[in-house]
Amino acid sequence: MPKNENLFSSWRGRAGRLTSRLVHRGWRAVQRAGAVTADRPGPYRFARFGVGTRLAFPQGTIFGEPWIQLGDHCVIGQHVTLTAGMMPGLDLGPDPVLRLGNGVVLGRGSHVIASRTVEFGNDVFCGPYVYVTSDNHSYDDPDQPIGRQWPRSAPVHIGSGSWLGAGAVILPGARLGRNVVVAAGAIVRGEVPDHAVVAGAPARIIRRWAPESGWQPPLRTPAPVPISEDTTVEQLLALAERERAREQRDGAGDTDVVAGQ
């Protein structure tokens, strides 16, 4: 290859790397500037915006925010939709329609649609693409398009401490108790008691905790040991390295067993 072509290729490579860095640096700056917080509300005027709460940029569809309350220290991921009312510009009365408690986490791409009351307790964690709605299409009239028929609506309540896995769907009228686990992709309607694990479409209870008997069926693995609050970063790295070494030893032992067979 001629020398000048080598120089051109080298220059083009450096220019491409520089452009990539600039684009990513610029996008991070846009994300920081576009995030919505109590101090930087952007175009939105929520009924309440809690201390430490943050809506990541870019946001999804947001309207009816005068009837939306956000608790303290909530984390709202990118492309999350929060709506109160069937459409923008409606007067929904004196009371909030959509309420998030303190410490609620809504994963990327989640949707919360509320024309009737939708309430999250404190410390509810949601994976990505969770869908919570107080409204569902009706199909009573066979002569009308389903999308044009008036929906069925009912309030939704999600109890404090619950976890909703990725892609879970919470339908109108659902009432989840405290510390409920909803498996990924589950479709939930009706009542779910405290300390229950539900899965499937439609969701059913597959495990439940009771004071007198514990978890039934019993858990198959021991509970993880929490990390002490005074653990340093260096100690965490050492633990991770020790765990990797143990896994490598276990893997080597499995290979030896297979070879011996």
In words, what does this structure look like?
Pfam families: Hexapep (PF00132). Keywords: Acyltransferase, Repeat, Transferase. This is Acyltransferase. It comes from Streptomyces lonegramiae. By secondary structure, this protein is α/β, with parallel strands linked by helices. It has 3 domains: 1-32; 35-223, 3 Solenoid (UDP N-Acetylglucosamine Acyltransferase, domain 1); 227-261. Helices cover 23% and strands 26% of the residues. The chain has helices at residues 3-34, 233-260; strands at 36-37, 48-49, 54-55, 62-63, 68-70, 75-76, 81-84, 98-100, 105-106, 111-114, 118-120, 125-126, 131-133, 135-136, 152-153, 156-158, 163-164, 169-170, 175-176, 181-182, 187-188, 191-192, 196-199, 204-210, 214-216. The chain has a 7-stranded parallel sheet with strand order 2-5-8-11-16-19-22, with no helix packed on it. A 6-stranded parallel sheet has the order 4-7-10-13-18-21, with no helix packed on it. The model is unreliable at 254-261 (pLDDT under 50).
What does the main sheet amount to? 7 strands, parallel
Rg over alpha carbons:
25 Å
What's the helical proportion of residues? Answer: 10-25%
By secondary-structure content and strand pairing, the structural class works out as alpha/beta
Strand order of the largest sheet: 2-5-8-11-16-19-22
InterPro entries: Hexapep, Hexapep_transf_CS, Hexapeptide_acetyltransf, Trimer_LpxA-like_sf
Organism: Streptomyces lonegramiae
Keywords: Acyltransferase, Repeat, Transferase
EC number: 2.3.1.-
